Model the fold of this input.
Amino acid sequence: MRILLINPGQLPDAGEDQFAGRMDSMFLRGRPFSETYFGIPLALPTLAGVTPAPHEVRILDEMVEPIDFDQPCDLVGLSAMTCKATRAYQIASEFRRRGVRVVIGGIHASMCPDEAARHVDAVVVGEAEELWPGLLADAERGRLAPRYVADAFPDVKTLPPPRHDLTPYTRYFSYFLQTTRGCPRSCSFCTVTKMNGRRLRRKTPQQVVDEVARAITLPNPWRPTIVDRERGDRKRKVAGGAIFFVDDNFAIDREHALAVCRALTAYQDEHDLHLNWFTQSDLTAGFDDELLAAMKEAGCMNIFMGFESLHPEALAAMHKPVNLPDRYRECIDNVERHGIEVTMSVIVGTDSETASAGEDMARFARDNHVFYLFPNIMTPHPGTQLMSELEAEGRILRREPELYNIRNVVFRPKLMTAAELQALYANLCQDVLDMGRLLETAALKVKRPKRYYLTRPWRLLIWLAFSYFFVVLGLRRKLTFREVGKLLRYAPRLVLRNGSLNALGFVVNAVGFGTFSRNEARRLAKPEQPGVASDAPSRARAIQAPKP
Done:
């Protein structure tokens, strides 16, 4: 069979994904005139990896390329988060109208299978790797079942590597990989435990290295030379493409994390490479000096951490006992002391917060020179404890799936109006993600000695390319003239004078975060904008509550 696996795009006007990294890809892949993205969700390359021969598989990502609905295929597979479910249903309808069978899986279909079943021929509930070969056999025989339900979690040690070679990988900044699946935590707003279980399943360190090697050896012209100051100016080539380990908590099993880091370090030493990678962890990693040192040695550049809130009451309601606000600064300082940047993810709109919560968070970011900060609106995704609680209290205001993207107020807050929460979010974005503030913060941060520096020829080449991109974006009104001026003021000292990999990341992300903030402000300023909250409940199509 000819199988087409599709990552749906996002509907317009519902809000941008700050984690999309469009500017990262555009600058660091050298594609100023084409659609780029941070990376493709891991589900589709993983399914392609377990697809048996002789089936033909193609992966299409609507985030970076259009869909040709008339292309020849026998089966379409879709995977979608809640915010992409409506677009996934539209895509399914177009293919079914042409007589092509459609299967959907992923987190939204797993939490809301009855809703998804109204739009497709078959729904996959849970992790799909062990169901997929049987589903394909049924499809070949013309006996596709309406639903396939995983009754166990796959052993990740037995899985073949994901097929990133089948993706439009030249348009991505990073390759998504995993070292573990599952999470023993029970955060009230998270679906991971319900989807992937509480028991941690671990890939072997060698398995992780093999998957990394397959990804970074794909054709990629972006391989600058750096010097390693901690190794006597030893020169290394930067590996082609960054890696994002999408583990829900990379450090939850520190011994396994240490083993993975040692294996990655050995691989890079053997090949004179430097691997840029990022991951997610709770705050406990910020106080573990041995683990942080091992992560830095292995090439970790940034850790995404869910700080969530400055208020203990809010953290208690979220079930985040490891978060201690009076130690946030210590955590950030300790991670940065090891040469790793911190991405501070925060949530606004909890029941214990008032309209002043945004000002408190913005003040914390300024006082502590936080560069990487992701503001999010509390969102009750289907299948979460939070959704169950708000449903029971009759506080759900909006039910359009595309609005469930942590950029819109879909419930009635307790201590402010929905409109006040939306304004709080918009103001926080503008305060902490202003391009000028970010560049000023970056200029302070690079004064601390770094480990990896671009060689001078590469600095000059990158600076010339960046200057060209700045002008192009300005002429295309993607950047304001004020922002172009700020970049031309700060970027030379960051790229040319400092030249560290950290400085390069600061410039690229200042552009990305600044444009994200401005686009969100424009979206929320539009009259009758679908994402702007009202305290009156909506009668729009419902997100189906999952059965217990």
About this structure: Residues 126 and 150 are 5 Å apart (CA to CA). The first strand starts at residue 2 and ends at 7. Residues 536-548 have pLDDT under 50 and may be disordered.
